[in-house]
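The instructor's notes for this session suggest beginning with a concrete chain rather than abstract definitions. Hand out the sequence below and ask the class to guess, before any prediction is shown, which regions might be ordered.
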Amino acid sequence: MRAAGAAQRTGRAHDAHGFGRHLLEMGLAMMVGMMVSAAIFLTAVGMTAEEGMREHAVLFVVLQALGMTVAMIAWMRHRRHNWRSSSEMATAMVGPAVPLICLRLLDVISGPICSLYCLTTLVAMVALMFYRRSDYGATATAAASTS
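After discussion, reveal the predicted structure:
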């Protein structure tokens, strides 16, 4: 009985490690995607990040969403996640942009929306990962690496 309880706790620890690892990897992929898309955009328009976010708030968020999504999906496919998981994660990145962009275009909110967008994508990503936690634990990572 004790051995079974210890094995169950160990299994949970491995799943938590896999979950944390995936969260860290996705966070890093998001940052890389944001930096690359921002650098390309800001170089093209010749502005600082602050100016770009203020003067082109909607376009900046669209490009950030695209950059994060491409980077995350590329990394997830590299780590052998299936297309369903990749598509759901893409939705978690793009979904929060839609209401923010609409509110900004309708002048319900003003100013840069990038910070709020980034916060909502993190919440959406973590919520999705908890919802599909069996896909993001150590067991899922081990299964993906053997296939």
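Then share the key points. The chain is about 85% helix and 0% strand. Residues 2-146 form one domain.
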